[in-house]
Amino acid sequence: MRGATSWAMAAQATLHCLTGCAVGEVLGMVIGTALGWGAVATIALAVALAFVFGYALTMRGVLKAGVDFRTALKVALAADTVSIAVMEVIDNTAMVAIPGAMHAGVASWVFWASLAGALALAFVITTPVNRWMISRGKGHAVVHAYHH
Fold this sequence. Notes:
Blueprint: H1 7-34, H2 39-64, H3 69-97, H4 109-135
Helix pairs in contact: 1-2, 1-3, 1-4, 2-3, 3-4
């Protein structure tokens, strides 16, 4: 899929990526914060889980199309790596930059509001990146061949 890419298509691709990414990110932040880990360890776990859940969500759809595991993994890597990486840089930078967010604790509204804001910011910044990639036949464009 090369050529004109609508903002709606880019937003849909970003939302798909954000779904898996957010599950991993939230889980990592909750685990790290609940265990009293420092910012670096918590962020490392959140990033790792964001990639795992992001790739898994894409692979689920591709595997349903009858593709073997190895091919589905390659498609997920091609489709999601840049998008997840951009999201993770943005949302974790925001979490570190928001005063008290990383140390607020999971029972605090500051933690949850900061995390929601960080993920929303990541969505806004990643959508144009995904639009650019899809218009060049990259990113989520590689997944479209497997959707029926």
